[in-house]
Amino acid sequence: MLLAPDGSFSLAELSPPEARMALGMYEFCLEDLDADWKHATVLVALSGGLDSTALLLLAASLRDYLPCRVIAAHLDHGLRPSSAAEAAAAGELCRKLDIPFY
Question: What is the pTM of this model?
Fold first, then answer.
């Protein structure tokens, strides 16, 4: 899943496995979650690791299909010397995706 320089991407730009995953998430949201998507906020707990980053990218790719607000939250416990850099990278990704970062 590659981001354009402006941080955008669309489902059409995804590989077939990525698109299947995104569409599966979309179907789960519509069919299994009882939500008013027009007034929903989706909070992604973003550690900066692969799993949470993938979830953030999936949520961002669905913003045009589920009219919800996507935000990200990161908690830097400061337990590793690299944690500040990881927090900065998570914030930069959110900036590129135009997702509020807390």
Answer: 0.77
